[in-house]
Design a protein that fits this description.
The complex is a heterodimer of chains A (about 200) and B (about 210). Chain A is built from seven helices and three strands. Chain A is mostly helical. The longest helix of chain B has 17 residues. Chain B is built from eleven helices and one strand. The chains are: A mainly alpha (about 200), B mainly alpha (about 210).
Chain lengths: ~200, ~210
């Protein structure tokens, strides 16, 4: 009889403990965090751990550049990911895939700080004004347009950007558009439609 | 001969069934809805916007919100479509600076700054006879006019006195308006409030 009660008590105590340990285990499965202490995690993505000064156009990756990330991340991990991937990039200071196109690692450094000496990574921090604009102007409009419940995530930590968020965008998007849009036929007929 | 007639008849029948590709759907939605600018990238410059964005403390995410999350489980195709829609700025985002009648514009407000083809945003009912029938529409739905035009746009014609052309009233209307007002007072009320008459007739001491 006592054994039966002991068994019940053991199950009641051990079940939540088992759940907690499972959560901890899931957290530990993040290779980005793990690689800080365990260099063998490198082999999750790389075929070989490169020696100092050793380079390769494929970065010794197991899979095609962005495919490597898609093992864990979604193709639509964030809006704009799909629009950028595979685009030609002409700036020198950002890494590209072997064909000179944008891959996930062009903007994101998969290695957190401390893994590669002298390298710093950044979170996507937004100004208060931007947060308010997104919350009160962008989101209601998007909800209406998409017919979906959509919400902004303002705690964008561990996104490992190579530069602070605005700076990395203007690396490529700074250059003014060269096309002469004024060559389009004028619409004088509608001039008085201006709202002055 | 019979074969030719049969081919022509069949072609006409098929044309009737398929219809013209530009045929209206008939739900009325296409009459008022304006189109987005064809391709904003043609005349958009990040370089031009950079200074004002810095000054207003706006980040790139304001126009390109990459931080949107959706709770519902959707197919990859749908997610890509939503991701694309979220990534590029919508009408409200651009209009916040370029067309904001309530708060005032902090950026150029000419419609053709972005809408290069102004015909795209011209409502379908603004056709050849619009000048003579616009009054009915404007009285029925004033807000609809104000979604594109500022009030000064109406006043520029209706209250203008420096043109030789006829706008609303004859140039000597002030002297004869009493006759028309007595004949059909409702006509005045189409545009004027009673207070408009009272301003002169009570304060100015005019006899009714």
């Amino acid at each position: 009889m006592i054994i039966k009660y002991l068994l019940i008590i053991f199950m009641v105590v051990s079940f939540p403990a088992a759940l907690l340990s499972q959560e901890e285990e899931e957290e530990e499965e993040n290779p980005h965090i793990e690689m800080v202490d365990d260099e063998f995690v490198c082999l999750d993505c790389h075929t070989d751990i490169p020696k100092e000064g050793q380079t390769s156009p494929t970065y010794f990756l197991v899979d095609a550049p962005s495919e490597n990330c898609l093992g864990c991340h979604d193709e639509t991990q964030h809006a704009g990911a799909k629009e950028h991937e595979g685009q030609k990039v002409e700036v020198e200071n950002l890494p590209k895939d072997e064909n000179g196109n944008i891959a996930c690692f062009t903007c994101h450094d998969p290695h957190p700080e401390g893994v590669i000496e002298g390298r710093t990574v950044y979170d996507a921090e937004l100004s208060e004004r931007s947060k308010q604009f997104i919350e009160f102007i962008v989101v209601p409009n998007l909800k209406e347009e998409l017919g979906q419940e959509i919400k902004p995530e303002f705690m964008e930590t561990e996104v490992y950007l190579r530069e602070p968020s605005n700076k990395i965008c203007v690396t490529c998007h700074e250059a003014p558009i060269k096309q002469d849009w004024r060559s389009h036929p004028p619409w004088n007929k509608f001039t008085d439609m201006y709202t002055y | 001969m019979n074969r030719t007639i049969a081919i022509i008849t069949f072609s006409m029948l098929m044309l009737g069934l398929i219809g013209c590709p530009t045929q209206k759907t008939g739900d009325g939605s296409e009459d008022m809805k304006t189109k987005a600018p064809g391709d904003v990238r043609v005349n958009y410059s990040h370089d031009v916007h950079k200074n004002v964005m810095d000054k207003e403390e706006f980040d790139c995410f304001v126009c390109h919100p990459m931080n949107m999350e959706i709770e519902e489980e959707l197919s990859l195709e749908e997610m890509i479509k939503i991701s694309n829609k979220s990534f590029f700025p919508g009408k409200e985002t651009c209009h916040f600076c370029h067309f904001n009648p309530q708060a005032g514009n902090i950026a150029p407000s000419q419609c053709d700054t972005c809408h290069i083809n102004m015909a795209d945003i011209q409502p379908k009912n603004h056709n050849f006879n619009w000048m003579s029938k616009h009054a009915v529409f404007s009285k029925a739905d004033e807000e609809s006019c104000e979604s594109c035009h500022a009030p000064v746009f109406c006043q520029d014609c209706h209250k203008r006195r420096d043109l030789p052309t006829l706008t609303v009233h004859d140039r000597n209307f002030r002297f004869i308006h009493g006759i028309e007002a007595r004949a059909n007072p409702r006509e005045c009320g189409n545009c004027h409030q009673v207070t408009f008459c009272n301003t002169c007739h009570t304060e100015g001491g005019y006899d009714y």
